[in-house]
């Protein structure tokens, strides 16, 4: 018998895997670091490397306490579904650059510009 997984760990892991999958759709490779360095994922596109902090919720309460000092992108995932039935295709993934996080209001209406897209990926992984 394996060790049980608490609900918070399960929710967080689903969020991290969803971010990895969605990033891969846009050609970005992402994986957790070997050691817990404070970043949930390290994302790579071309010669650009970005530390990604992932925050996932099932309650539509988008808050991000306790962010690490060093990261480039905050990924917010508001899981869509009920109980154990998740609709990952209907779940939004938001990628917010660190420079916008400190002044950003916790309101899903304001997150639309940060919905994952090719244009946003190009902006976040720009090397110029």
The radius of gyration computed from the alpha-carbon positions, rounded to a whole number of angstroms, is 14 Å
How many structural domains? 1
CATH class: Alpha Beta
Order of helices and strands: HEEEEEEEHH
Q: Identify the overall geometry.
A: globular
- Assign the CATH architecture: 3-Layer(aba) Sandwich
Question: Largest beta sheet: what is the strand line-up?
Answer: 1-2-3-4-7
Beta-strand content bin: 25-35%
Q: What do the pLDDT scores average to?
A: 88
> Main beta sheet, described?
5 strands, mixed
Task: Briefly note the structural class of the backbone.
Answer: alpha+beta
* Unreliable parts: none
Explain what you see:
The protein has 128 residues and is α+β, with helices and mostly antiparallel strands. The protein has one domain: Trna Endonuclease, Chain: A, domain 1 (3-Layer(aba) Sandwich), CATH 3.40.1350. The protein contains three helices and seven strands. The chain has a five-stranded mixed β-sheet. A hairpin with a 2-residue loop joins β2 and β3. The chain is globular and about 45 Å long.
């Amino acid at each position: 018998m394996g060790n049980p997984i608490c609900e918070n760990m399960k929710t967080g892991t689903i969020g991290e895997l969803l971010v990895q999958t969605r990033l891969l759709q846009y050609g970005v490779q992402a994986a957790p670091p070997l050691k817990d360095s404070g970043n949930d994922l390290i994302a790579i596109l071309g010669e650009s490397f970005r530390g990604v902090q992932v925050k996932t919720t099932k309650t539509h309460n988008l808050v991000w306490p306790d962010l690490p000092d060093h990261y480039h992108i905050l990924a917010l995932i508001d899981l869509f579904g009920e109980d154990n039935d998740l609709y990952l295709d209907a779940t939004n993934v938001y990628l917010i650059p660190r420079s916008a996080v400190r002044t950003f209001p916790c309101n899903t209406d304001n997150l639309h510009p940060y919905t994952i897209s090719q244009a946003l990926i190009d902006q976040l992984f720009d090397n110029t």
